[in-house]
């Protein structure tokens, strides 16, 4: 198996739920593979999005880029439908005073999943937008 970014629309991945959307910066930008595009939220919290991989994937590395997020929680599901999520990762992110937060999570405990439910909690500042990108490196099980 080859190590790829399995969180790309070109790999068949979809954002099937997002709690907010902006016409210029929709949730689908999270998975388009372009570092210049992003998802903008409404500024209210908590926010969440669900990513569907359509097949089981083995996660080796996550890279999350964000602004003004205090707590990040990622849940995973191996079900054929986006149900029965179990908590996988929860992290308090470092406040970077308006600078990009780069959070890299290595697969010390690998996750095989079909869905990720990503929750964003307790923004440091109430701003009108938050920018998001999410990369998942691993293997697609066929």
UniProtKB/TrEMBL annotation:
<keyword id="KW-0479">Metal-binding</keyword>
<dbReference type="InterPro" id="IPR008979">
    <property type="entry name" value="Galactose-bd-like_sf"/>
</dbReference>
<comment type="function">
    <text>Component of the IFT complex B required for sonic hedgehog/SHH signaling. May mediate transport of SHH components: required for the export of SMO and PTCH1 receptors out of the cilium and the accumulation of GLI2 at the ciliary tip in response to activation of the SHH pathway, suggesting it is involved in the dynamic transport of SHH signaling molecules within the cilium. Not required for ciliary assembly. Its role in intraflagellar transport is mainly seen in tissues rich in ciliated cells such as kidney and testis. Essential for male fertility, spermiogenesis and sperm flagella formation.</text>
</comment>
<keyword id="KW-0966">Cell projection</keyword>
<keyword id="KW-0969">Cilium</keyword>
<dbReference type="GO" id="GO:0046872">
    <property type="term" value="F:metal ion binding"/>
</dbReference>
<dbReference type="GO" id="GO:0005813">
    <property type="term" value="C:centrosome"/>
</dbReference>
<dbReference type="GO" id="GO:0042073">
    <property type="term" value="P:intraciliary transport"/>
</dbReference>
<dbReference type="InterPro" id="IPR033558">
    <property type="entry name" value="IFT25"/>
</dbReference>
<keyword id="KW-0106">Calcium</keyword>
<protein>
    <recommendedName>
        <fullName>Intraflagellar transport protein 25 homolog</fullName>
    </recommendedName>
</protein>
<dbReference type="GO" id="GO:0005929">
    <property type="term" value="C:cilium"/>
</dbReference>
<dbReference type="GO" id="GO:0030992">
    <property type="term" value="C:intraciliary transport particle B"/>
</dbReference>
<comment type="similarity">
    <text>Belongs to the IFT25 family.</text>
</comment>
<comment type="subunit">
    <text>Component of the IFT complex B, at least composed of IFT20, IFT22, IFT25, IFT27, IFT46, IFT52, TRAF3IP1/IFT54, IFT57, IFT74, IFT80, IFT81, and IFT88. Interacts with IFT27. Interacts with IFT88.</text>
</comment>
